[in-house]
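TOKENISE THE FOLD
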Amino acid sequence: MTRIIMSGCSGRMGRVITDIVKADPDAQIVAGIDVVDDGTLGYPVYQVAGDIKEEADVIIDFSSSKITENLLEYAVSKNLPVVLCTTGFTDEQLKFIENTSQKIAILKSANMSLGINTIINMLKTATSVFCPAGFDVEIVEQHHHNKLDAPSGTALALADAINDAADGQFEYIYDRSQKREKRGAKELGISAVRGGSIPGTHDVIFAGPDEVIEIRHIAYSRSIFGNGAVSAAKFLAGKTAGMYNMNDVINAQLEG
């Protein structure tokens, strides 16, 4: 039984994960962290991590980057691994996360779905084929109107996978409205759409001479992210300090 603390438990993803874990005989949420508690979650909810009384094996965080440092400090004090699903970190926060991973196990992923993480691996191969042939690369992401950060962490993860495979040659371009000039060969455009209740759509476009290749991922519900987060929590519980990712989870499932 993996005992979980759910950070951001009253939010959309927190409630999705709560329902997933209720149906999972191998996991249990023992406590939550959130500023809101309507009493329907079925476990105690605390506004501050330091007030938690229950023993746990791992933390899942789907809250806000504003509380990340405090949450990680609590995790270090309890020697608890953290599945970090929150996005929108500053460079300073990313450095703090990296430093903290020397003390506890942290699995950080901008997107918890199996599909997105498989696409990230596909993009490395696609980039090595299309970019030397002069293909332009654009990423378009769509999310619901309540999402705070833009572009999404997933869009940036896709861009980073492409740029890493291209030896860092691309410059990310987020807005062309102030430009009246030809597109640069080393530009990687990233566009964000916000509207309605879209859970998440990501399109990667490789546009070359006389042909276009599009790789698309559509999330029809948030359950795909919740299932990935719970799988990651089970994987991370008991792991030694270090930085992990969803590929580690996928590989462990393949080996198991």
